[in-house]
Amino acid sequence: MRIVFAALLAAASCAGIAQAQMSPPIGAGDVTTLDEALAQAGAASPSTEAAGAGIRAAEAGRDIAGLRPNPSISFETENVAGTGPYRGIGESETTVGFSLPLELGGKRGARVGVADARLSRARLEAAIALGDLRLYVTQAYIEAVASERRLAVARDQLRIASDALGVATDRVDVGYASPIDRQRAQVQQINARTGVERAERAMMLARATLERLVGKPIAGPLDTAWFDRTTLPASGPDAPMPVEDTLAFAAARADLGIADANVRLARSQRVPDLTLSAGTRRIEATNDQAMVFGISIPLPLFNNGRATLSQARAERDQADARVRVARIEVDQQISAAIADRDNAAASVRASEPAIAAAEEAARIARIGYGQGKFDQIVLIDAERTLAETRAAQIDALAAYHDAEARLARLTAPAPQLSGDNR
Q1: Model-wide pTM > 0.90
Q2: How far is Cα 235 from Cα 333, in angstroms, rounded to an integer?
Q3: Contacts of 287 (CB under 8 A, 6+ apart)
């Protein structure tokens, strides 16, 4: 009987090792790779549409900034509806005039400069939106693949627990073990079944999240080979990353460009504008006509633009400080992503021998328990260690790919835009 138990447990061990190497596909169809998911998400994402609309709005704002002030036509009648000789319209004077504002101080050019800076920022926002979308889709893809792998491990653990329950039942029935062994095995099976249900829900949620980003259902399996493939970094420090060319730093620099342009605009608005006017006047009493000319200029008594200029300069100082903050934050984020990647790579590197050792320990524990050499607690501990080691490998692979995705997003080169303030 012991030989039969040992044979059953050894067969279960071999089957468990073989099944742990496989991740069964969810549905029939071609494999959906990460590149395909990224391409589909880029075509269906509302964030890219919003970024495109932002560029069109900034381009329209650039056209508006280049427009000159509209002229105006005036019609004026004097000396009517009064008393005495002014009772009727016999003494009226009618003036038809034309006035044209003249902008001074370079206001139009300053407005165009602000609009150009905002257009550059809008184009940069489009690049940032695309980079963020790629990161979100990649992270969703990683989680979807990892959830499939966790589900495969959970199902394997449920099969192992069911086999262990059968062996424990047989040992109890023939009097080789205490009934408490069967109870423990039943608890392990219940926990394993609950783990499968939890893993199934997590897998469906991860799939749904990825499908929402992609914009359509994904019927086929995902690229698990990509998930297993890692490029482990070599030992030694990495080369410094170019912080100045990253999207986050370019965004802060673009905000500084807008602030500089606003300072120039505020300075130009301190120069008063002129309004030239010309018209013709008809005198009803003599039926004569005369020309009327005029010029007007506002008096900067209450608002001379000094407060507006001070505000613009303060906002420029704020934007300049944020550029320095962005440099520090981006450098810290890159360093953290590199550290996370290297730590995950070390865990992936150690997971293979760890899993091999855990599988061998579980195999020996199954055989030993079947032969009555080991207590059931030893078997349960060995199975738990194997499950935890497999889960740790999946977590390490997911953490590695996530760190790689974050690093790619952080170091993505910014597009070259006009008006960069380096």
Answers
A1: no
A2: 21
A3: none
